[in-house]
């Protein structure tokens, strides 16, 4: 069996690589370079140099050949442009979901063709074969589970994948890395969006979309509370970064035409909660779910929301109770009995 292993320089993919090596599998490691160097230099940081150093040290230590695959143009075309378009439209994009479906298990699978039997990664997820289909199951580590980010993968992609660490909780995985002296054993977990590295998300947005002054208005009273630098920096439910006194304040609405952000105090936020939404651009693993009770995630989190799903005439999710922080463009991912069923982008019903 020949396996192409995606490595990132983190402890998860390092342990996954080590486990496959122990099994005597014919392995080659691949590091996907997705950031544009000129942009990274302009923003004052190189998001991939440190990662690549850990990747090289790990592969040398385990005596596994390494290839670096440049996918910057594909990433810009399929992920960055998507993110920028969504932000300009006032939506909340999920770039890591697109990175997995279009790049790691999309453009990369296309690049290596049929030269490998499987592609492995350090994602926290599990796979199960059932009736000629591949099910995507949650990891044993509920805190680290990454099925939310894998929810747009298709059967054609899943049948080629391996997730060697999906059956392990993080602290045990970290101990395994230390016990086997892997170079990344003490490296901190990465945070934020996969391609940004040490570059902050606001820096990325400002570089491409710039800044434009706008008003921050209290939704309840219509009072102007302050100014902001552009609605594209904010998402529904956001609390941090508003820099307003007398809070905490939460973003409850955005007016893209007027470049206005509406906020509410914590005790008023429930008034602007959402209890139902439609789904578009759906992907189902492995089939359209049956109508009825299920669980849903509206962001990467260990928490599930109870909901009722209705498939026709268009996919509809009705929450058991209103939830704040639901924004158009976010992905809602459906679950039943620890199986990820897939999902789609949130479309909110028409309101004021």
TrEMBL record:
GO terms for molecular function: ATP binding; tRNA binding; tRNA-5-taurinomethyluridine 2-sulfurtransferase. Gene3D superfamilies: Adenine nucleotide alpha hydrolases-like domains (2.30.30.280), HUPs (3.40.50.620), Translation factors (2.40.30.10). Residues 203-265 form the tRNA-specific 2-thiouridylase MnmA-like central domain. Pfam families: tRNA_Me_trans, tRNA_Me_trans_C, tRNA_Me_trans_M. Catalyzes the 2-thiolation of uridine at the wobble position (U34) of mitochondrial tRNA(Lys), tRNA(Glu) and tRNA(Gln). Required for the formation of 5-taurinomethyl-2-thiouridine (tm5s2U) of mitochondrial tRNA(Lys), tRNA(Glu), and tRNA(Gln) at the wobble position. ATP is required to activate the C2 atom of the wobble base. PANTHER family: PTHR43052, TRNA-5-TAURINOMETHYLURIDINE 2-SULFURTRANSFERASE. This is tRNA-5-taurinomethyluridine 2-sulfurtransferase. It comes from Paralvinella palmiformis.
């Amino acid at each position: 069996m020949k396996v192409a292993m995606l490595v990132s320089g983190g402890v998860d993919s390092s342990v996954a690589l080590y486990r496959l090596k122990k099994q005597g599998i014919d392995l080659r490691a691949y590091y996907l370079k997705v950031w544009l160097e000129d942009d990274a230099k302009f923003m004052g940081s190189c998001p991939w140099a440190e990662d690549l150093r850990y990747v090289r040290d790990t592969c040398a230590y385990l005596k596994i050949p390494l290839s670096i695959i440049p996918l910057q143009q594909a990433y810009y075309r399929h992920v960055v442009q998507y993110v920028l378009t969504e932000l300009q439209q006032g939506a909340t994009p999920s770039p890591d979901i697109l990175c997995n479906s279009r790049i790691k298990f999309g453009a990369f699978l296309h690049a290596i063709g049929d030269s490998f039997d499987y592609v492995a990664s350090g994602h926290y997820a599990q796979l199960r074969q059932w009736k000629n289909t591949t099910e995507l199951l949650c990891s044993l580590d509920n805190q680290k589970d990454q099925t939310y980010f894998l929810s747009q993968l298709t059967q054609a992609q899943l049948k080629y994948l391996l997730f060697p660490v999906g059956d392990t909780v993080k602290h045990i995985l970290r101990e395994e890395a230390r016990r086997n002296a892997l170079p990344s054993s003490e490296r901190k977990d990465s945070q934020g969006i996969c391609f940004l590295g040490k570059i902050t998300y606001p820096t990325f947005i400002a570089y491409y979309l710039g800044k434009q002054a706008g008003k921050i208005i209290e939704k309840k009273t219509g009072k102007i509370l302050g100014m902001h630098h552009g609605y594209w920096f904010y998402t529904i439910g956001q609390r941090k970064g508003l820099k307003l006194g007398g809070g905490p304040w939460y973003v409850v609405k955005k007016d893209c035409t007027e470049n206005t952000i509406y906020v509410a105090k914590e005790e008023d936020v429930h008034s602007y909660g959402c209890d139902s939404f439609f789904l578009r651009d759906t992907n189902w693993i492995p089939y359209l779910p049956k109508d009825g009770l299920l669980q849903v995630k509206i962001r990467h989190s260990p928490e599930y929301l109870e909901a009722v799903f209705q498939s026709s005439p268009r996919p509809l999710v009705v929450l058991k109770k209103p939830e704040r922080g639901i924004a158009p463009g976010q992905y809602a991912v459906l679950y039943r009995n620890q199986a990820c069923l897939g999902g789609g982008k949130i479309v909110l019903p028409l309101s004021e």
